[in-house]
Amino acid sequence: MTCNNIRMKKKIIYAAILVLIAIAAPSCSKTCKNCKLVTRDSNGSIVNSGDPTQYCGADLVGIEATPATTVGGNTTKYECD
């Protein structure tokens, strides 16, 4: 075998390994949702609604874990879609 053949085989093997690593690597995409702060009265009707903001990753987990607050019959909580 000549040196050129050996070099070509090494390049093919390296390329194949690179492709396998790219396929096997997990995706780094984050889960994101649009959430807004919504206040509802005791009948469930919306009294006030904030602007939606996009939350991702740990921020989203924190927003979804925020408990609802009730004051004078009105309940305020984050609602995400």
Pick out the low-confidence regions. none
Tally of alpha and pi helices? 2
Structural class: alpha+beta
Which percent bin holds the helix content? 25-40%
Strand content: 25-35%
Overall average residue pLDDT: 87
Order of helical and strand elements: HEEEHEE
Using only C-alpha atoms, the radius of gyration works out to: 26 Å
Care to count the β-strands?
A: 5
Q: For the terminal residues, how far apart are their CA atoms?
A: 62 Å
What sort of overall outline do the alpha carbons produce when their principal axes are compared? rod-shaped
**Main beta sheet, described?**
5 strands, antiparallel
Please characterize this protein's 3D structure:
The protein is α+β, with helices and mostly antiparallel strands and 81 residues long. It has a domain at 32-80. 38% of the residues lie in helices and 33% in strands. The protein is built from 2 helices and 5 strands. It has helices at residues 3-24, 57-65; strands spanning 32-40, 46-49, 53-56, 69-71, 74-80. Strands 1, 2, 3, 4 and 5 form a 5-stranded antiparallel β-sheet that branches. A hairpin with a 2-residue loop joins strand 4 (69-71) and strand 5 (74-80). The longest helix is centred in the first third of the chain and has 22 residues, at 3-24. 4% of the residues are buried. The mean pLDDT is 87.
